Amino acid sequence: MSTFTLPSSFGPTAPAARRTEAGLVLAQKASAMIIVMRAQATAKEIADVVARVESRGLRVNISRGEERTIIGVIGDERPVDGTQFEVMDGVEKTVPILKPFKLASREMHPADTLVPLDGMKVGSNKIAIIAGPCSVESRQQILETAFAVKEAGAIALRGGAYKPRSSPYSFQGMGEKGLELLAEAREATGLPVVTEAMSPEQVPLVARYADVIQIGARNMQNYALLNTVGESGRTVLLKRGLMSTIEELLMSAEYILAQGNSRVILCERGIRTFEKYTRNTTDINAIPVLKQMTHLPVILDPSHGTGKWEYVTAVARAAIAAGADGLIIEVHPHPEDALSDGAQSLRPEKFAQLVTEVMRIAQAVGRS
Amino acid sequence: MSTFTLPSSFGPTAPAARRTEAGLVLAQKASAMIIVMRAQATAKEIADVVARVESRGLRVNISRGEERTIIGVIGDERPVDGTQFEVMDGVEKTVPILKPFKLASREMHPADTLVPLDGMKVGSNKIAIIAGPCSVESRQQILETAFAVKEAGAIALRGGAYKPRSSPYSFQGMGEKGLELLAEAREATGLPVVTEAMSPEQVPLVARYADVIQIGARNMQNYALLNTVGESGRTVLLKRGLMSTIEELLMSAEYILAQGNSRVILCERGIRTFEKYTRNTTDINAIPVLKQMTHLPVILDPSHGTGKWEYVTAVARAAIAAGADGLIIEVHPHPEDALSDGAQSLRPEKFAQLVTEVMRIAQAVGRS
Amino acid sequence: MSTFTLPSSFGPTAPAARRTEAGLVLAQKASAMIIVMRAQATAKEIADVVARVESRGLRVNISRGEERTIIGVIGDERPVDGTQFEVMDGVEKTVPILKPFKLASREMHPADTLVPLDGMKVGSNKIAIIAGPCSVESRQQILETAFAVKEAGAIALRGGAYKPRSSPYSFQGMGEKGLELLAEAREATGLPVVTEAMSPEQVPLVARYADVIQIGARNMQNYALLNTVGESGRTVLLKRGLMSTIEELLMSAEYILAQGNSRVILCERGIRTFEKYTRNTTDINAIPVLKQMTHLPVILDPSHGTGKWEYVTAVARAAIAAGADGLIIEVHPHPEDALSDGAQSLRPEKFAQLVTEVMRIAQAVGRS
Amino acid sequence: MSTFTLPSSFGPTAPAARRTEAGLVLAQKASAMIIVMRAQATAKEIADVVARVESRGLRVNISRGEERTIIGVIGDERPVDGTQFEVMDGVEKTVPILKPFKLASREMHPADTLVPLDGMKVGSNKIAIIAGPCSVESRQQILETAFAVKEAGAIALRGGAYKPRSSPYSFQGMGEKGLELLAEAREATGLPVVTEAMSPEQVPLVARYADVIQIGARNMQNYALLNTVGESGRTVLLKRGLMSTIEELLMSAEYILAQGNSRVILCERGIRTFEKYTRNTTDINAIPVLKQMTHLPVILDPSHGTGKWEYVTAVARAAIAAGADGLIIEVHPHPEDALSDGAQSLRPEKFAQLVTEVMRIAQAVGRS
After folding, report:
1. Which chain B residues have a beta carbon less than 8 Å from that of A298?
2. Are residues C34 and A70, on separate chains, in Cβ contact within 8 Å?
3. Which residue has the higher pLDDT, D26 or B223?
4. Of A4, B109, C45, C243, which is most buried by a Cβ count within 10 Å?
5. Do B360 and A360 touch (CB under 8 A)?
6. Residue A208 Cα, gap to closest chain B Cα (Å)
7. By the 8 A CB rule, do A292 and A329 touch?
8. Which residues contact D260 (CB under 8 A, 6 or more apart)?
9. Hey, is the C-beta of C300 within 8 angstroms of any chain D C-beta?
């Protein structure tokens, strides 16, 4: 790839460097930690741990219990990796005390962040409903869907042009042609467009067509991609990984925020569990947890959260009742012909019914 | 318990016998199954499988694909254990087609079952809210709570006298004294009482005091206990195990129903996942799934579902929005003194606020 | 069960009472804890928490970091429920420092506990292999299996007389008749018998026939049952729940040990995960973790751990390589006729091959 | 991306196009499926489903049971998305019958694939042990480690130059400088180098320095990356995602194989479960499952599988006993100074001991 030239802002090393510097600043007081010594730890082992902590410019607070000694690490000026201490003799475990995210934290930024999307602001009192097909499949399909979801009350159009599929033999999306059709649908309906980028190199192309770049669940920890969309400055819809913790979701948001881009909408979309009657398990708890922990807007995707169209509307109502700022819903005019995710797509008339029901819930929780 | 004599109908062998007979009748057409042969299966291996199926009085339907042969098993008169076939030469796997529950199935019993509880019917249009402390701790505590939750709108009082605790050193409940206090609280407030039985031998005693016998999450597959409460005829609140599928919950309900007791209320209370910010993950999907699959009423426990009082109200609203028939909520006048589950208990004033908010959601979904 | 009379020591309240007393003694120094205050906690909130800690006779160690205050709780004389503090104003979370088990802990009891089983000692240098069918089905079946597994090298015979089945329509075991057949097989072969008790009331009957009482995975947290087998004094094979943590397994062992019964063999048998190609996921990590944390012997059940006979031998070898003290294996002379678990049962000749391979591994790790 | 020029073989659209064509060929007979109709399905609903199946050039096999009709789909010439049928009226569910992978399947390619690595062949009778630090941190560190692991018996050196970290503030790796140091260590010791590429654009650079390109767990479903390493023709070490099924791992291998690159080594490295005493749960079952299902070599990473150095050796022994073709182990001369994964890194002397113990197990299973 010797002929390969990245624009400087997309370079693979630049973000790392910048992140490192940012890290040094951002993480300044971020890593208070408790070191629990084993019951049999000797005085020398304790002294060695203390010495190592202090050698890093940190202060200790020693608490000698009847059974064991606990060493608090305070006043740190850089991130400390607790695992380094876990290999020292006499150490049983380390317990981090502070949350590892800062820019995404409501503690650091108490006011809600409102992300502008066309005329409205996601995260405000008004519920934002994004809808459209899983994949863009044809001009006819995307235009028909766009008009239908707009009429039903959606404020943005979703549709995938690049599709991450577990099988290399499945439909992989229409690529740039799909992006062009999305742009045409925006032209025709006025709806802003949400679509996924799957790799850093796709970002500039997707950014040319999309209003919001979606980071899919499988890419939630694709850090090269997170850095690139962070640098792009474009609004990002960040979906939770299907087996990622809420904390990891916020850490991935932190990657984007650390690039100076705070236009991030978080999306709960169901996690993988042992339950077999649904495709995923919608983590409804994540809504109040995220609203408490972060200032970023939070929406829910009941289509992936359940995987079956029959359950989508009930879970959409639940999301708004729990405090979500919006929804992203898969709608297809003919789900039985959909090239992907047919089973979880709503027909336009069902979607219109969903919007009506969701709006009643919105009013019941004092939103519109 | 030397003086304790179980009525003959509570014997350990009777239910087994009756279950077997019942099974023969109930399961008559219950086990259609697909047997998938390996690509390399020989004609003899296929013939052997067919012969074995037919030797059990079942019919086969053979489908020869280009790559492999698939054998459908039809018209069965008894439950067939697919795993028996999986050890035969040439068999790749078996796929059950029919759901394994019958009495609990909405297909067999389309109309909603309404479970009477004092004046009201759980499963009807009216939302049922059950509330009270995790454990009965004192006369003062349970009476104070009972009056408070009644005033706020609860229709039944919960409180544990026998507590399943993961540590043998934790408070194990007040035992029969706790049951007496619950009865006194019912006397004083008119609220029916919901309390847990942890073993078959406790059932007669608990049934003497309680209106509803709760089967806790850890006992969802305690089959001796399920049979005993089935035989007791008393209303049962069956909580989903924290590691159980929805199908397993319905199979456990089936145990109770198979004893002739159809007064069963199902309760989603959160499942165990990898997420660490909450104690459990509330499976909100389970609400529409259960309402579709079974005629039994379904309630949700957001106290255990989240494990933190800050999130209880949001998830309670979500439950009703998703179609739950009611809620069970932990309320304690002084959570900081609670002998168990303090972190997830609401103070009475917070509970009253929850009821108000939930009722607004109920109206938004056409309930009261 | 009309003629069934439990000895007074099997009553439902006695164990609770005794447990409470035991708890007060055993847990004396057991609950050091860290209370993490929120960043915004006020001086009054901190003082309130300190006052409450001290009002319980505990000491505090206050550590004021740059961002937040952390309160260590020391010198406790009883178990403290951290969740009580989590509802106080200004508290973010509590972190337990000490492990909650004591009697099961290797820290408290460094030497390996050897559990006598017939002539040998489980937990010693010699590998203990227990084998037999899932269920006792007939005299012919159990005797044939008993002779076969003895000849192959098993040191005990397993077989279920009472079977926990997720369906009420599945075979529930032969009951007492099955116990009699197991005793006959012991008589004929000299192999001690391992069989399951599913409820407290079954324990005296099972104890009359069995050398080792098995507590099944579904009953790992059936505390009434744990107390009863603890009191029985009989050797207990305690299987890990399919979604229980290692810590919970040790807490369940603690229930048995707290009744004065230290003849406890722990059994890893696979946990429930999202993986679909196997019935469960064998947690091989649990072997070295348990050997480090507890003095009790640890065996592994690769039949349930995998759910498919093709994988049983490979995982049996792995268990011994990882340090397990033994194995429990399902063997059936005709798996295709087994009334339960046919798919994961080995034929006797495959079992003999397994023993040969496992013994080679045993020698490679210095055991016999 | 206007200034961005990819060599034609690295284009974002080319792989998709080629994949589509390949898919049409490869998947020719790949998608037999069963469609289960609801009990209440009408004759018209059944006829509609049959018509739709046939309209796609597929044949049906109809099986009318007493309760419901089951439609087998046969002879397909392209992948059929079952979910399309699940939205049709009267359909309860669809069940795929054939495995979705072909090139990775042992059915299609019975003989073991041997992947050459320097002088040896991974997948042959000889156990392959790859070892080295999590991250390259300095010239001194990587050289010291390389010499130590070579002396102990490792056949390749691992070390990360680009590190996926959940925090943007953690050490992100040395980048190209790290690659240079790895190359220097290869020069000095003769050990081939295994190192990770995190994005498609890094692949050409990493390929310049590395003998084996590692795809990390977080990137197992980064399809752009999979296509790129597939096209590169370089040997790939593909780690299972911590949230991925075995089938998904094989589908990701299929992406690489579909690009014509069959030099793929699969690596089990632990999955995420609810267990808290270990960082991950090593899925030891995956070893015999993968050895049965695929012809590709399979190794295990006990460092990530356990997350704690104390457990690494026991699980390494287990892996070889279960049939793994090799191991990848984190070794660091001073784990307490490691910039990442210190807690799970072995000191060189412990690693040498591990190799000795593992080799004894290898002999016990007839390998060397």
Report:
1. none
2. yes
3. B223
4. C243
5. no
6. 36
7. no
8. D230, D231, D233
9. no
B314·A320 Cβ contact <8 A: no
Residue that has been written with the tokens 């289509």 in this structure:
A303
Cβ of residue A70 closer than 8 Å to a chain C Cβ: yes
**Residue numbers in D near C317 (CB within 8 A):** 321-322, 365
Q: Round to whole Å and give the CA distance between A145 and A151.
A: 10
Tens-place pLDDT, residues A139-164? 999 999 999 999 999 999 999 999 99
- For B315-336, what is each residue's pLDDT tens digit? 999 999 999 999 999 999 998 8
Q: Over the stretch C56-96, which tens digit does the pLDDT of each residue have?
A: 878 888 877 767 788 888 765 445 667 778 888 888 888 87
> A155-182 burial, b for 16+ CB within 10 Å, e for fewer?
bbbbbbbbbbbbbbbbbbbbbbebbebb
In the predicted model, residues of chain A with pLDDT beneath 70 are 1-31, 66, 75-80
A67 touches chain C (CB under 8 A): yes
* DSSP structural state of residue C38: P
Contact flag D281-C274 (C-beta cutoff 8 Å): no
Q: Hey, what amino acid is at C2?
A: S
- B318 contacts in A (CB within 8 Å)? 284, 287, 318-319, 321-322
ipTM over 0.95: no
Calculate the alpha carbon distances from B60 to A308, A320, B27, B49, C69 in Å. Answer: 31, 49, 18, 10, 71
Q: Which of residues 339-368 of A touch D (CB under 8 A)?
A: 339-345
**Closest among B239, B145, B225 to B193, alpha carbons compared:** B145
Torsion, Cα C241 C246 C251 C255, to 10 degrees, reads 50
Phi and psi (nearest 5°) for C347? -70, 155
Please check whether residue D321 touches C, CB under 8 A.
yes
Per-residue CA distances from A163 to A159, A167, A195, A215, A235 (Å): 10, 11, 10, 11, 19
CA torsion B227-B231-B237-B243 (nearest 10°) is 0
- CA–CA distance, D51 with D53 (Å, rounded to integer): 5
Q: Name which of A330, A325, A324, A360 is nearest A346 in CA terms.
A: A330
pTM of the model: 0.90
Looking at chain D, which subunits does it touch, using at least 3 CB pairs closer than 8 Å as the criterion?
A, B, C
- Whether residues A79 and D170 touch (CB distance < 8 A) is answered with yes
C34 touches A at CB < 8 Å: yes
**Residue B176 CB: number of other CB atoms within 10 A?**
17
Residues of chain A contacting residue D202, judged by C-beta atoms under 8 Å apart: 12, 224
Asked if D86 is an interface residue toward chain A (Cβ–Cβ < 8 A), one would say: yes
